[in-house]
Amino acid sequence: MEEPIEEVYFKWLYSKVASVAVPTPSLTYYTLLRDLHCTEFVWLVTGDDNRAADGMELRREFLRQAYLEQDPAWMSIPCSVLEMLIAFSRRASFQTDWPERDWFWIFMHNLDLAELNDAMDDVTQITYEVMNQFVWRTYLYDGTGGLFPMREPLQDQRKLELWYQFFEWLVDQEIE
């Protein structure tokens, strides 16, 4: 029996950011990444719809690489946080020349999720709480609790689209 497309796709996404040579619980992040993939990326600020579109574009890439036909129902599922973050890490890599995988884990670190490996308890509960804050933009003015916590914010990060948060964060962190 064939694996469902969603499972094959998840494994493909996982391989982009978290594959390891020896999959042991302290080195794997299946629970965290599955939770991110089960969380819809809801955009509340104009411009963040582009982040969702980028995330959904990963599906087309996957289908091309796997030589699979598009399933309109599967393609219409809303963008997940995992898809958005992987796509965003690609854009960040293009802007900075740092590897995509590194950017993904910088995002995880900024969200205080980077330590949630499969050897830990309560990964799903912690991820749910962090995603609830991130997706609904209930993090702090300075971006703490979001993707881009700032030392010296120029404006309320909750009201700024993620793309512009990213560039302000690069300047704030003195990253070239």
How would you characterize the overall build of this protein?
- The protein has 176 residues and is mostly helical.
- The chain has one domain (5-138).
- It is built from 8 helices and no strands.
- Helix 2 packs parallel to helix 7, helix 3 (48-66) crosses helix 5 (81-96) and helix 5 (81-96) packs across helix 6.
- The model has no long low-confidence stretch (mean pLDDT 94).
* Beta-strand fraction estimate: under 5%
User: Ranges with pLDDT <50 over ≥5 residues?
Assistant: none
Order of helices and strands: HHHHHHHH
Q: Based on DSSP secondary structure assignment, what is the total number of beta strands?
A: 0
Structural class: mainly alpha
> What's the overall geometry?
globular
Helix content: 40-55%
Q: State the major sheet.
A: none
Quickly count the helices.
8
Domain count: 1
Rg, nearest Å: 16 Å
Overall pLDDT level: 94
Features:
single chain, 176 residues, mainly alpha
What is the element layout, followed by pairings?
Blueprint: H1 5-17, H2 30-37, H3 48-66, H4 72-75, H5 81-96, H6 100-110, H7 123-135, H8 162-172
Helix pairs in contact: 2-7, 3-5, 5-6
Provide a concise account of the structure shown.
This protein has 176 residues and is mostly helical.
